[in-house]
Specification:
The protein has 139 residues and is α+β, with helices and mostly antiparallel strands. It is built from 3 helices and 8 strands, in the order ββααββββββα.
């Protein structure tokens, strides 16, 4: 593991490219709607209940890390949040993802989910959240 001397984030690779920031998650949510911040905090809480995670704000998103990043909140809209769960395979047989896209030049697939209410984190979504978390714990 390598630790950035500026931001103290830990990474699998030495000198891994990243965005150093001292911005907190709450800083990231400033000027966002109450609805979207509530949804985001609920999503974070769901992952905290699954195990040890390190959510951290970047310039454009909130990343969730175990040993490596495994989930992202990429947008806080007026009444929703957009979430991305990356996997090595495309899980096409589901009712929760509104988009599945292969990352160009890789064998990775980003699975996009739009959350409008806390009820959107149902058993199916929790199943995929747990899979993503397990991938994040594996080095």
């Amino acid at each position: 593991m390598w630790t950035c001397t500026f931001c103290n984030q830990q990474f699998k690779n030495i000198n891994q490219t990243h965005y150093c920031t001292d911005q907190t998650i709450l800083d990231f949510m400033l000027r966002k709607s109450e609805k979207s911040t509530t949804l985001c905090l609920y999503f974070i809480q769901c992952y905290i209940e699954m195990g040890e995670i390190k959510p951290h704000a970047t310039k454009t998103m909130i990343a969730f890390k175990a040993a490596k990043n495994f989930a992202y909140v990429i947008r806080l809209g007026k009444d929703f949040i957009d979430i991305v769960l990356p996997f090595k395979i495309a899980y096409t047989e589901n009712l929760c993802f509104n988009k599945i896209a292969q990352v160009p030049g890789t064998n990775d697939y980003n699975h996009h989910l739009r959350m409008y209410s806390i009820e959107d984190i149902n058993e199916e979504v929790k199943h995929y959240m747990k899979l993503a978390y397990a991938n994040g714990k594996a080095i």
